[in-house]
Amino acid sequence: MKVAMCDVNVIKTSGRRDASTRRAFLRSGASLLAAGLISKHANGASPSPPAADVSIEDFSSSGRSLGVTLVPKIVKSEAEWQRQLPEKAFIITRKAGTERAFSGAYWNLHAEGLYRCICCDTALFDSATKFDSGTGWPSFWQPISKGNIAESLDHSYGMTRIAVSCRRCDAHLGHVFDDGPRPTGLRYCMNSYALHFVEKTS
User: Fold this and answer.
1) Is 6 designated active site?
2) What is the pTM of this model?
3) What pLDDT digit, counting tens, does each position of 54-75 carry?
4) Which residue among the candidates 117, 119, 120, 189 is catalytic per the annotation?
5) In Å, what is the CA distance from 134 to each residue of 26, 55, 85, 140, 180?
């Protein structure tokens, strides 16, 4: 009976020691991890993983395709975008805002050139596909490259629309509708403040 009691005591004592050992191990592991993180921060390393690469079709100033290249996706904090962009461009591209009709710089522009992203300069639209939609926003029947934009469902304001954004930096550009002219029948209704126009050169 005493042996049995001793055996029980040994088990209890062993359990306490094992628990103490585990706690000590975990504490030391946490300390090492914290020290590693502090060391990384001290050396200027970022604790977050790098942004994924995206495939973008690049274009020359004449509008000629330079081929598809793999480039880093641009990810910035809200504060960084605010410092980079004019206020209206920030509200539209980073907060999915919309400029007032007929208020933007490009709705009635007829010059030949490329419309690039105001945030990252990715080529988005060519003036050759621009048309007068009568809406007060610059409108195009197709993007310069389907791979340079991304589309997603937008359920804001009690409607279901297809939102269009820049694939490289996720800037909100506008929406696409199915009431455009031939050959696509689409109307990419963009915000001027989301774009940067560059005239074509030979």
Assistant:
1) no
2) 0.75
3) 999 999 999 999 999 999 999 9
4) 189
5) 67, 34, 28, 12, 11
